[in-house]
Amino acid sequence: MSWQTTALYYQTINTHVATRLGGIHSANLLLRSLDYSDIARLITTRDFEGMTAMLVSHGVELKRAGAPAITLCANVAHKAADALVTQLDLPVLHIVDFTAEEVVKGGHRRVGLLGTRAAMEEDFYVARLREKYGLEVAVPGAESRERVDGLIFNELSKATIDRDVRQSFHDAYASLVREQGVECVVLACTEFRLVFRAEDFTVSTFRDDDFAREGGCGMGASEVDLDLG
Question: What is the per-residue DSSP string for 27-45?
Fold first, then answer.
């Protein structure tokens, strides 16, 4: 939910809508941007109840403004997806569903997952891949997960990213391929665009935010508003 991620979602959705509808069309959406430091504090202290309460509160505002659906511009925010659906009585366009459908379409079964600790450890992502789509999911070891998580929150929002930071992410990716024998890797963090290039990938690799933004385009191109929160 950093401003960089929000801007990327906004740009991509509008680009797709303009391409689909032509002319000077743009997405009909409502945007609620949050202070990233507040969200990061709740996530790093694993106060997911506090995070959920915050998102539901803002979701209520957007529903009152007329939003018929919710899309969340962050992986970890999807831990609040079920609560948002229940308390707002609105659908949530779920990033895991969009991603899993592409993985299955590619014929893959054993998936490596790289992201924040919450994405790699909490049921909202891993269990959904396993239980809803029948995928085998591998994640880095505990020490690597902790290091990756710390670097995501402390380094990837900086203007300049050090070479050793990039290498740490590349090492975590490589360990999934070499040591755990995954058929593909899901990058569950939008900011990974800052440290990975296409030539770095040694197996099929899915950036889950690509599919979430494209999924939101259908709603943004319709006659109703899309809440981009």
Answer: --EEE----HHHHHHHHHT
Where do the structural domains in the chain lie, given as residue ranges?
3-94+210-228, 96-208
What does the DSSP 8-state code read for residue 156? T
- Rounded Cα–Cα distance for residues 14 and 218 (Å): 11
DSSP H helices, the chain, are: 3-21, 36-44, 48-64, 81-88, 95-105, 117-121, 126-133, 142-155, 163-180, 208-220
Q: pTM of the prediction? A: 0.83
Cβ proximity of 139 and 175 under 8 Å? no
Q: Which fold has domain 96-208?
A: Rossmann fold (3.40.50)
User: In angstroms, rounded to a whole number, what is the distance separating the alpha carbons of residues 35 and 9?
Assistant: 16
To 10 degrees, what angle do helices 208-220 and 3-21 make? 50
Rounded distance, CA 183 to CA 109, Å?
7
Which positions ≥6 away from 40 have C-beta within 8 Å? 153
The string of pLDDT tens digits covering residues 96-120 is 998 999 999 999 999 999 999 999 9
CATH 3.40.50.300 for domain 3-94+210-228, yes or no, is: no
